[in-house]
Amino acid sequence: MNRRQRLPGQRPLVRTLALAAGWTAVALLGTFALDPFRNYQLALVAAYLCATAGLTVLVGATGQLSLGHAALMAVGGYGYALTSNALPFEGAARFVVALLAGAAASAVVGLLLGLAAARLSGPYLAGLTLAVVVALPAVASTWSTVLHGDQGVQTDFEGVPDALRRIIALEQWQAMVAVVVAAVVVTGLALLRGGRFGLRMQAVRDDEVAARLSGIPAGRVKVLAFAASSVAAGLGGAVLCFVAQAVSPGAYTLGFSLLLVVAVVIGGLGSILGAALGSAVIVLLPWLIGRLTAGLPTDAAQRLDGNLAVLVFGLLLITVMALAPQGLHGALASRRRRRPPDTPRQIDEPAPQKVLVPTEEQR
Amino acid sequence: MSALTAPPREGAPRLAVRGLSVRFGGLAALDDVSLHVDEGEVVGLIGPNGAGKTTLFNAVCGLVRPSAGSIAVGGLPLAPDPVRLAARGVARTLQGLGLFRGLTVRENVLAGRLDAHDPGSDTQRQLADLGLAEHADRPVGDLPYPDQKKVALARALVAEPRLLLLDEPAGGLGTDDIAALGDLVRHTAATGCAVLLVEHHVDFVMGVCDRVVVLDFGRVIASGTPDEVAGDPAVDEAYLGIEVTAS
C-alpha cells in the first residue's frame, strides 16, 4: 500500500492479491460449467456482491447503517448508462470509461451523503439513507430530460469481444465481467478494512471520543468509509446496467434496498464472505420460490408470486437471528473454531451503545 | 505566593492554563483557573466530586469550549480540536476507559500510534513494558478490569506523549496495582513527560505527585507540594478531612 510498515496481523498485500486472483480464477472457470441462465444469475450475484460487500464493511466496521444502498447502486447505474451513451467510441474502452464514470458518480453522491452521515448516527442515519431511496423515482422524473423518469435510461449493448465470440456465450461473458468487477471491489474493500484505515473505522465505531483523542479524525473516517462503500455499490449498479442494458428507478426500490441489508445480515454482519453468501441467497431464493409456485394452479401462483418471497425472507431473517445471530459466516466460523473455555465473554459489562457490532475476526 | 501563580520557570511549561472559565448555562464549572505543568513534573488535580477536574481535562482536550482564559501546550496556544492533540504530543486516558471493545488488546494500543511509520513494533514494546504481551491478541473485553486500565494507559503511552493527562488512573485498582501504577507514572515523568492526573485516591496522589492543585466548586482553593496541601485547613475542610478519615 505504501512504504510504511505493515500492521501486525495484517495480511501481506501479495497474499491478499493471490487469494483474490485464486477465487476469481475459480469463478471465471466456473462460468464454463454453467448454462446461460445460471451465468445470468451469477452475474446478478456478482453485481449484488459489490453493493453488499460495501454495505457489510460500512455497517460492520463503522457501525453506520445505510438503508439506501440501492439508490447508490442506481447512481452508479445512471452514471454508467449516461456516460456509455455519450461516448463516441465502442467496445472495451467504452465499458471501462463508463464503469469508472459510474464509480465517480456514486463517489460524489456517497461523499455528500457521507458528510451528512458523519453528523448522524443510528436511526437518524438510517432514516436519511431511507429517504434517498424513496426520493429516487422523484429525482428520475424531475430531471426526466436526462434520466427519462420511470422508463429509465437504455444503454447500448456490450457484446462479447470478437476474439472470444466462438467460445463464450453472451451470458457467460457478462458473468465473467461481473465477476472481475466484483473481485476488484471486494479486494479493494478487504485491503481497506485490513489496514490502518480499517483500525481507524473500528476505533471510531467503538468509541468516537477516545478515537479522536488518539488522533483519529473521526468525521473524516466516517465520510471516507461511506464514500468507499458508496463506490462499491455504484460499481455494482454499473455492472447491473451492463448486464441489463438499462437502468430505471423501478429496479432500485425500497424493497430491494432492504433486501441488500437482509443479505448482509443473513450472511453475517461485517463479513465479506457472508455478503457473498447473502447475495447468492437473495438472487436464488425468489427464483426457487418461483419454481415451486409454478407447479400450483395459475390463480394461486399469481397470488403467491412475489408475495411469498417477502414472507420467506422475513422468516429466514428471523430464523437466522434466532439460531445464528452472527449470520451464515458466523455459524460456519464458530463450527470451525470453538471459543476456548477460559475466555468467556464478559456479560456484566454495560451494553455497547452501537447495536451493530461485527461478528467475526476482522481479516 | 503559591507555585501556581509564580511565573513559569525557564522555557515554556508543557501545559499552561491561565484564567480558564467554563460555563454550562448558568453554572460555572471552572472559574478563573490557572495552573501549569512542567517537563518531567507530576501534578495532581484533586477535589470533591463536581469540583471541575474532568471539565478541566475536557477543556484542555478541546472537548468543551472555555468561555474565558487560555490554554497553551509547550508555549503554543491549543487548537480546539481533540484530533490534533496527539500530533502536539498530548495523550489522555478517559475515566470510562474508552477502549475499543471490538478490537484486540494489540489493536487498541495500535490505534494510539497509527500515524507512525512502524506502529507494530512500538506497540509490541509498549505491551511488553506493561506486561500485556501475552494477552495481545485477546479481545480487550476479555481482560480483567485492572488489565483493561493498563491497555488504556498503553494506548496513551505508545504515542510517546510529552504531556500525559490521566483521568482517575487508580480508580478500581487494588493496592498492588496502584503501587505499580505509581512507579509507572514516576518512570514516565522521568523520561521528561509532563503528567497531570485527576485522582480520588489520596495516598496515591500524595505519594506520586510533585505538586497538587485542589479544586472546589470550579476554583483553585490550594496548591503546592503534597505536604503543604495536606496541611492546608481550607483543603481539610473542603475535601481532605473527609477523605482522610474515610480511608
TrEMBL record, chain A:
The keyword Transit peptide does not apply. Keywords: Cell membrane, Membrane, Transmembrane, Transmembrane helix. GO terms for molecular function: branched-chain amino acid transmembrane transporter activity. Its main location: membrane. Coiled coil: none annotated. It is found in: Cell membrane. It is a multi-pass membrane protein. GO terms for cellular component: plasma membrane. Pfam families: BPD_transp_2 (PF02653). It comes from the Bacteria. The chain crosses the membrane at residues 12-34, 40-59, 66-83, 95-117, 124-143, 173-192, 223-245, 308-328. The keyword Metal-binding does not apply. Residues 333-363 are annotated as: Disordered. PANTHER family: HIGH-AFFINITY BRANCHED-CHAIN AMINO ACID TRANSPORT PROTEIN BRAE, HIGH-AFFINITY BRANCHED-CHAIN AMINO ACID TRANSPORT SYSTEM PERMEASE. This is Branched-chain amino acid ABC transporter permease. It comes from Cellulomonas humilata.
UniProtKB/TrEMBL annotation, chain B:
GO terms for cellular component: plasma membrane. The keyword Kinase does not apply. InterPro entries: AAA+_ATPase (IPR003593), ABC_AA/LPS_Transport (IPR051120), ABC_transporter-like_ATP-bd (IPR003439), BCA_ABC_TP_C (IPR032823), P-loop_NTPase (IPR027417). The lineage of its organism: Bacteria, Bacillati, Actinomycetota, Actinomycetes, Micrococcales. Coiled coil: none annotated. Keywords: ATP-binding, Nucleotide-binding, Transport. SUPFAM superfamilies: P-loop containing nucleoside triphosphate hydrolases. It holds the Pfam family BCA_ABC_TP_C. SMART domains: AAA. Residues 15-242 form the ABC transporter domain. GO terms for molecular function: ATP binding; ATP hydrolysis activity. It comes from Cellulomonas humilata. This is ABC transporter ATP-binding protein.
